[in-house]
Every structure is written in C-alpha cells, then in structure tokens.
Amino acid sequence: MENWIASFDEIIKGKTTDVYFLNAKKCLEADNLDKTVVYAEVTTDSLPKNWTHFLFLGLAEVIAMFQKTKLNVNIYSVDEGRILPPKDINGVRIPVLSIEGPYGDFAIYETPMLGYLCFQTGVGTSALYVRLAAREKIILSFGIRRMHPALAPVIDRACYIAGFDGVSCVLSAEKLGIKPTGTIPHAFIIIEQGIENAMRSFDKNIDPEVKRIALSDTFSDERFEVMKALDAVGDHLYGVRLDTPSSRRGDLKEIIKEVKWELKQRGREDVKIFLSGGFDEKMVEEYHDVADGFGVGTSVANSPTVNFAFDIVEMNGQSISKRGKYSGRKQVGYCQACDVYLCSLESQGKIICPKCGSKMEKVVKQYMMNGELIRDLGDVGSIRRYVKEQMEKLELPKK
Ligand SMILES: [Zn+2]
Questions:
Q1: With b meaning 16 or more CB within 10 Å and e meaning fewer, what string describes 309-324?
Q2: In the chain, how many domains are there?
C-alpha cells in the first residue's frame, strides 16, 4: 500500500520544501547569517485567462502552518476572501501577505506557503467567475473527481466561499456544515434498466427531503427520458439534469427548449433544468437564459493557479530587493468610492486616494505577532458573505 500524500506533520517538518532552501539554510548557519531579520512579500505579476481580479484564499492554512511551527514571525495579510487586482493604480504589485522574522527560521516554509495560496486562490477565482456568469442561477461543485481525493475539501471550500450553492462531496459538506447535493449516476440507471425504475427506487428509498432530480440522457433522447421520469415520480420530480455527451450535443439550447415545451404541455413548467458536462464560465454565460442551474466540475477543480512569488524587500531594517521587484515595506490603501488600490512605503503613514483625495482604507492587517495569532480569521460563512458583498463591483472579463 502506498500513500503519496504529505501529512501535516511532514509539512511542518519542512519535508515538502525545495531542497535549495535546506542548502541555503545550512550555509547561512555556517556563516552566522541565519538570524538575519528580513521582511518579505507575496505578490503576483499577472493573472491566468483574462481575469482582472483574484479571490485571495489560503490564508487560514498558512496561519495554521505557522502556528504549528511556533516560529517567532510576524504575518501581515489582506483578509481571506478579498477580491483584488494584481497591481495598484501605478502598476505596483500589491503585496497580499508579508512575513517578518529571522530568514533562516522560515525559509523552508516558502514552498508550502505558496502552494496553499496559489492553488486555493486559483480554484476560488475560477469559481468566482463562474458564480458571476451564473448570476442568480444555482451552481453546484461537481469537480472533485478530477483531482486527488485528498484535495476534495480544499476545492469545495474555495467553491463555497466563492458563492457556489452546494457541493457533491460528503466530507466537504460535513466540514462546511451544509448538506451534500447531487442527482443520480448513469450507472444506477443502467443497472435499474432505465430512468423509470431508477427514479421509482430513488423516490421510495431516499429521504423525502432530498430533491428528486432525474438524470435524463442515459439511453435515449433527453425529451423522452424527462417524460419517463415524470411518469415515474409525478409531482415529486423537482428537476432534470442534462449531462448530454458532446458527441450527441448538436444544438443543446434547442434540446432544452423542446424539453421545456413538453414539460409545459404536462403542466410542469416548474421542473428545473440543470446542465452539467464540461461547463466553464463562458458556457454558463451562454446557457444562463435556458437553465436553472449548473453542475460545474473540471473547469474549476483543474483551475490554473495564481502564481504568487515571495521576495525579500527589507533586510535589517533597510530597503532592498532583487531586480524587477520594488524594495521597501509597503502599505496598501483602498478607496471604495473610486475602487482604487495604491501601494506606498509604510514609512509615509496615511495614504490618500489619488482620484478623490480622501483617506484610503488600509487593507493589509497584522495577523500574527511573534508567532501568536492576534486577529480573527473568520469562519467560512463570514468569508462567503464578505465575497458576496464585494462581487457587485466585479464584471465578467470581455470576450
Ligand atoms: Zn477615491
């Protein structure tokens, strides 16, 4: 039996680091430089796809890791769930998270820290744009089967925070404190030899609180399978899911319109239409007018990552940085009225909005002081509400 998943203990021991950090640490110790106090920033230069903003996620796990290491570090960060652009109004990369402390102590944690942030921010941002495209329609996370099972709760946490209405994974739902949501698998319909038997069995054996949603594309045409499901469970039918394979898709909108027409003939305009099978934000936008909800999987679970970098900008209290990066400890101001970000040196004190001249809100806050958590991270529910509040100002990227 083999297990290729790193345990939390192995991460804390630094075993998932890149070996060059171990070598660097060894040399710095030999040269008596490992306790050099540095201030380093996490930034990103650009975003995947045509994204203009990202949903910052992963902070809770970064903090959990540093709490466990018991290192004497200070951590400053924007709140988890903040939606922001990679650069400020002047093109300066916005530092989303900064660490201050003896470099030799925390160097090995750069790798896992970036891993937590890059992956979760990527999945969360993909989910955010799907949410935006879907507007008021229902969105369910169906993508855990495309990734290593150990990642399922991480993917679903990001989707739920981004505003998805439900998740199919049992463990994810348990952790999120919600009920898992799903329909029925094709295999069940095949073994029951048709949608009628399958829906009758589901209706008889499954808790009445669970919505009866028929998967309507297994053996025959969607329209006829929907009618069979309706015959089987009648009033109990809540919705139908069309997972039409791409080889049979033709004009999916026409198929949906026909299904709706036939449902109307039977007085069941209320039956919800759910779509799944390869949907991303573009397809959700395209089918928004004909569907009531979408099961979204691969496009979100297999999202490109947001490639954050980690760079020293101050050493022993003096500004310094590698070429290509702006030196000095920065503060990040935000003006809600103008929707403008501005980075300036922290030594400059208050930040004034370059557009309206009012005092800007400082969005980077101290989360850890000398290794102790000093600010509430917020639970999943509050981060989700925070995301919803910010979404009003966000627009879908132009095609
Ligand atoms: Zn302003």
A1: bbbbbbbeeeeebeee
A2: 2
Last residue of a domain, one of 291, 317, 335: 291
**Distance from residue 390's CA to the centre of ligand 1 (Å):** 17
Q: Over the stretch 54-90, which tens digit does the pLDDT of each residue have?
A: 999 999 999 999 999 999 999 999 999 999 999 999 9
Question: What are the angstrom distances between the C-alpha of 321 and each of 4, 40, 121, 250?
Answer: 37, 9, 25, 56
- The pTM assigned to this predicted structure is 0.95
Burial (Cβ within 10 Å: 0-12, 13-18, ≥19) of residue 91: exposed
336 CA from centroid of ligand 1 (Å)? 7
Domain extent for 343: 8-122+304-391
Same domain, 37 and 116: yes
- DSSP bridge pairs for 135: none
Separation of CA 346 and ligand 1 centre (Å): 19
Q: How far is the CA of 242 from the centre of ligand 1 (A)?
A: 47
Which residue, of 291, 322, 353, is where some domain finishes? 291
User: 131 alpha carbon to ligand 1 midpoint, in Å?
Assistant: 28
What is the distance in A from the centroid of ligand 1 to the CA of 341? 9
